[in-house]
What we know:
By secondary structure, the chain is an alpha+beta fold. The protein has helices at 2-21, 41-44, 194-229; strands at 27-30, 37-40, 48-55, 61-66, 73-82, 91-97, 104-105, 123-124, 129-136, 145-156, 163-165, 170-173, 243-247, 268-272.
Amino acid sequence: MDVIFFIARLTLLFLVLLKDVYTATPQTYRMEEYCQGEISMIMGDFHSGKLVFHSDGMSNCSVTVASWYTEPYIQFYFEDFEVGTDDCLRDKLMIKDGNSVYSTQITGLGSKLCGSEKPDDVYRTFTRYLRIEYETRRVYPGTPVHFSIIFNAFDVGICDSWEIRCDNGRCIQDEMNCNGYNPCGDHSDCKLPVGSIVGIVIGSLAGLAIVMTVIVVSICCYRRRKFRNMPSQGRVPNTTTGYVISTFASHPGAIPSSSNPWYSTGHQQVLLGTAYENSPVPPMPPAQISSQPEK
């Protein structure tokens, strides 16, 4: 039972550690559900997210992501990208640094994005807002349009106690550290890949489980041997052949009475197969010793 309880606690510890490794996984938001609206990190109480868009290309859609006041910038990158053809005649995507249609384009990105070639860099805003606009000129459904954007809030300057500092000078929430989504933008949040960290955690827990199992088994074996070597109640250790006869009175305080002084008429307790160590065999009663006639 102790071993089962130990394994259960070890499993719980493993799940907790895995939760810590994969903490702060970006929340997913479907862009088509927020068209012409805003996704607020403050209202949603989150610091990282994933914006997903799937459409038949028959309607325009624009969404603004608003960051925190304490972390007033947003970094983002594309996870996948498929927006019409390369000529941008029917479909195009525009990413802006601000919350209006007149906001400037994101530095490093073109004025309009289309085709199937995914932008590979990590980009950032210089305001609290990231605006995503999809425009279409289709007159009938065609190839589906889809893309996904991973984004998170960050700050620059002196990091707070609940933040970690990236090599590029950005400050991100500590809970996003090593979440596998490159929240720093330069992979400096986690020196080891998440897979390696999980491997280390599993290996460490497996080693700990083996050590603790050996300890528990050793303790159980020791206790079992100790129990076997303990004398039973009412028994005398160091067995030899022979018998030990102990006499008890029938009533407390009464003196045993018997015509034979070697035995009493009271209750007799016979312990077979036990004797005190090196104790002599009791002599035969006088009544049983045959007398030899004199010659």
